[in-house]
Write a structure and sequence with these properties.
225 residues; alpha+beta; 4-stranded mixed β-sheet; 3-stranded antiparallel β-sheet; 7 helices; 9 strands; 23% strand
Length: 225
């Protein structure tokens, strides 16, 4: 399964340790929900993982190949460590090639403004029927999942997953993408440092993910932060 799956799963063998309560109040430094991403004035980097048959040509050419199914929903993740949790550091079947996809901020923001939460939330929707109507017509879905630490354990605050379908998926692949890099070697190096107990060294290798200014109306942020 690639990261186009609509039901994200965890790694097969996470580093054992007590898990933080995922719905605990956020710390003063971190609101419970926030987009954190490597970004510039014009672009934002998201992560996906694919089989080598898809991932390697995409990284080589800097664009998704024709075999990349533009009609399917695809999930993009601004959090590198959440991607590592999802793909098991690039060890899961059909997720062996980890890609850093740099896309236009204008496209990313458009998707957020036109997205719907992937689940019903009484604090954001008048009723379940209203949510279902919004979900049916939305080209993007927002899901807030527990952020991960270097051991891939859940942290007490959440990060974004953004699902793209229809128009959003096509525009992501063919209009918004600026560059695609194969970061599988980085994933392997960070994992090796963690396994060796060199967590400080591993942390220095991580992408510099800073708070991202989510556009007004981003689902899940209307009453949380």
């Amino acid at each position: 399964m690639t990261s186009s799956s609509t039901s994200p799963n965890g790694p097969t063998s996470p580093v054992p340790a007590p898990r933080a309560p995922v719905d605990a109040p956020a710390t003063l430094a971190e609101p419970q929900r926030r987009i954190r991403a490597l970004h510039t004035d014009t672009t934002v980097t998201v992560y996906q993982a694919y089989s080598p048959a898809l991932g390697l040509p995409a990284a080589r050419d800097g664009r998704f190949p024709a075999a990349w199914k533009r009609e399917r929903m695809t999930w993009i993740k601004p959090s590198f460590l959440w991607m590592m949790y999802r793909c098991g550091w690039g060890t899961k079947a059909d997720q062996e090639t980890v890609l850093a996809v740099e896309i236009e901020r204008a496209g990313f923001d458009w998707a957020l403004r036109n997205a719907c939460l992937s689940h019903y939330d009484a604090g954001e929707h008048a009723d379940r029927a209203a949510w279902q109507r919004e979900l049916k017509g939305a080209p993007a879905r927002v899901q807030w999942d527990p952020e991960r630490d270097l051991g891939l354990r859940a942290l007490p605050y959440r990060s974004l997953q953004l699902g793209l379908s229809g128009e959003a998926s096509r525009r992501y692949a063919d209009e918004w993408t600026v560059a695609i890099r194969d970061v599988t070697p980085l994933a392997r190096e960070v994992r090796a440092r963690v396994r060796a107990g060199e967590t400080a060294a591993a942390a220095t290798l991580l992408p510099e993910e800073r708070p991202y200014p989510a556009p007004e109306g981003t689902p899940g942020l209307r009453r949380v932060s």
